[in-house]
Amino acid sequence: MSESSLYQRLGGYDAIAAVCHDLLPRLQNDPQLGRFWQHRGDDGIAREKQLLIDYLCSAAGGPMVYTGREMKQSHIGMQISQSDWDRFLGHLNGTLDAFAVPMPERTDVLAFIDSTRADIVEA
């Protein structure tokens, strides 16, 4: 018997989408991180949210196809600092707490997210 993918263990598309729907408003409303969404239209934010869902589903082993840019290209020039990253992780952990994500899946999610840090943090 093969081990279930992280996508399956997290609950599939609907669960990952629900996490994104919880996480993004936390980030947008954060006094330090909100600057990344200022002056953005609702349509652009909705597109970004869908790309995030697709990216996470695909990276977790799901059937989604991510059609967006690579993480480095998407974040270059945004001057995301280590402090920004740490605040993001705080919100991510708050979201994972809100959904009572079990420790094995939480560990895998956080390890994956950490693997993207070098491509996102630049300042």
Automatic annotation (TrEMBL):
Coiled-coil-forming residues are none
Gene Ontology molecular-function annotations = heme binding; metal ion binding; oxygen binding
Q: Which CDD domains match?
A: TrHb1_N
Q: Which Gene3D superfamilies match?
A: Globins
Binding of heme occurs at 75
- The secretion signal range is none
SUPFAM superfamilies (alphabetical): Globin-like
Recite the UniProt keywords alphabetically: Heme, Iron, Metal-binding, Transport
> What InterPro entries does this protein map onto?
Globin-like_sf, Globin/Proto, Hemoglobin_trunc
Protein name, entry field: Group 1 truncated hemoglobin
Native source species? Motiliproteus coralliicola
